[in-house]
Amino acid sequence: MNYEAANLVQATGTVKLDGQPLANAVVTFESPQNGTQSYAMTDTSGSYRLQFDSNMTGVTQGEKLVKISTTRKILGLNQSEGGGETDPANEPKSDRSQEVVPAEYNRKSKVIVDIVPSRTVYDFDLKSKPQ
After folding, report:
1. pLDDT bracket for residue 77 (50, 70, 90)
2. Which CATH number fits domain 3-126: 3.40.1190.20, 1.10.3210.10, 2.60.40.1120, 3.30.70.2390?
3. For residue 9, which of 116, 122, 112, 123 has the smallest C-alpha distance?
4. Quick one: which of 62, 52, 65 has its CA closest to 4?
């Protein structure tokens, strides 16, 4: 992979749910054009730093669809083995933990951000119940 050609932006931020830090949430920034994504997991303070892949941090420039989930699994991030990314809807009910993030921020997300080199912080303050 030619990382220089990818023009990665070092993106970080925090995720809050109802004003409280959201720990252990998977954050993905997905490209609507080609489906590539950068990903991260929030720490106990809700902070994250996007990974482009297992070797490099960052995210490619341009529009990204943001999804945040406490149940999504990504190989190498919060899952040590298996066949890559999994969708909680396809897991047996006994294996599912309860999603605390509303669907409009994950499965049905319409949250779009524009990644530009001049902006490196992308914070999200989610509401558990729409206003």
Report:
1. confident
2. 2.60.40.1120
3. 116
4. 52
- Cα dihedral sign for 33, 30, 50, 85? negative
pLDDT in tens, 115-126: 999 999 999 999
Q: What's the chain's length in residues?
A: 131
Q: What's at 109, amino acid-wise?
A: S
- Counting Cβ atoms within 10 Å, is residue 95 exposed (0-12), middle (13-18) or buried (19+)? exposed
Q: Which residues contact 54 (CB under 8 A, 6 or more apart)?
A: 76
Global pTM value: 0.82
- CA angle, corner 45, sides to 102 and 107, nearest 5? 20
